[in-house]
Amino acid sequence: MNQFSYYRASTVKAAIDAASRSGNTRFIAGGTNLLDLMKSGVLTAETLVDINKLPLREIRQEQNRLHIGALVLNSSLAEDDIVKKQYPLLSEALLAGASPQLRNMATVGGNLLQRTRCTYFYDTTMPCNKRTPGSGCGAMDGINRMHAIFGVSDQCIAVHPSDMCVALAALDANILVAGPKGQRTIAMKDFHRLPGNTPQLDNTLGKTELITAVEIPAANFTNWHYLKVRDRASYAFALVSVAVALQVENNRIKDARIALGGVASKPWRLLQTEQLLKGQTPTADNFRKAAEKSIEGAVTRTYNAFKPAMVVNSIQTALLKSVAI
Ligand SMILES: Cc1cc2nc3c(=O)[nH]c(=O)nc-3n(C[C@H](O)[C@H](O)[C@H](O)COP(=O)(O)OP(=O)(O)OC[C@H]3O[C@@H](n4cnc5c(N)ncnc54)[C@H](O)[C@@H]3O)c2cc1C
């Protein structure tokens, strides 16, 4: 058994100071991912800093943006009146994730930082460059059905498993962070990392930095849909997911955002596909043509070769559902 000390912080500063004191400190929020990882020996901690008492549970509308505290529960966020009315894409994505019990524990900050569900990462008897840099990758020539097809490296093909993050990527969210050097904001697109030669690093957050909030800029989208394709109808991670937000005026697409889940180590924004859609009429044909562009550069392995076709079909379906054709 690995012993660790436990400290309950009551201010953001106290949490950051506690994290800075020891080399192997981890913040704990809902614990739904961290405790599993510690129990299975994937992660260790000298100190757990419990952040649940911090005043980071507020959802408030500010001028031109929605502010969401890092400790807001996934369930509270999904059911929030402002979110349901103005950002239904986010609500749909959250409700597609996990189970009601888990969503009642899981926090926004924890969801952003949840680790991959790659089985080789969880199995400590197998090589995994993300868990133990330099040990190899069991997934590369193993059972890689759930794995990435975009942004992969020869070190790692794990995917980021979050649903919420896919919607946040489409909504151009910002992550507010506090650390020993003060506060900073990280754009969602820069938050999660591609594996490259450092697959052990999932994101650009510093080791002692704390996520304090997520902010979503106001937008004028008229149509939304979150589609999650998975092995079971609920309580399963995505094979492919698609977050779509459109602004349609006079039967023309004025603005489009599309992000994919289940295909990369970060939510995968499709900027080129978005450009192709702008100015088009929202028809099945136009959606198909744009969707077909989205798989350029995909790299498949033995068991995930079905994913590019699934991506195209999923994007077209999500777009059609968003305009209810
Ligand atoms: C069986 C099961 C099924 C699931 N299915 C899905 C699914 O379909 N879709 C989906 O999206 N998710 C799914 N999840 C994942 C779930 O959403 C995450 O476990 C949850 O969001 C993590 O939040 P938490 O608050 O419990 O994080 P914790 O477990 O407390 O923490 C996770 C990580 O975040 C760090 N952390 C937490 N808060 C902060 C902060 N504010 N600042 C800095 N670091 C922080 C911790 O140190 C830790 O490293 C599933 C989980 C389980 C167990």
TrEMBL record:
Instruction: State the PANTHER family in the record.
Output: XANTHINE DEHYDROGENASE FAD-BINDING SUBUNIT XDHB-RELATED (PTHR42659:SF9), XANTHINE DEHYDROGENASE SUBUNIT C-RELATED (PTHR42659)
Task: Kindly provide the name given to this protein in its UniProt entry.
Answer: Xanthine dehydrogenase YagS FAD-binding subunit
Q: Which GO terms describe its molecular function?
A: FAD binding; oxidoreductase activity
Question: Would you say which domain of life the source belongs to?
Answer: Bacteria
Q: Which SUPFAM superfamilies match?
A: CO dehydrogenase flavoprotein C-terminal domain-like, FAD-binding/transporter-associated domain-like
Organism, scientific name: Chitinophaga terrae
**InterPro entries tied to this protein:** CO_DH_flav_C, CO_DH_flav_C_dom_sf, Diverse_Substr_Oxidored, FAD-bd_PCMH, FAD-bd_PCMH-like_sf, FAD-bd_PCMH_sub1, FAD-bd_PCMH_sub2, Mopterin_DH_FAD-bd
The record, for Pfam families, names:
CO_deh_flav_C, FAD_binding_5
Domain (FAD-binding PCMH-type): residue spans on this chain: 1-221
Which keywords does UniProt give here?
FAD, Flavoprotein
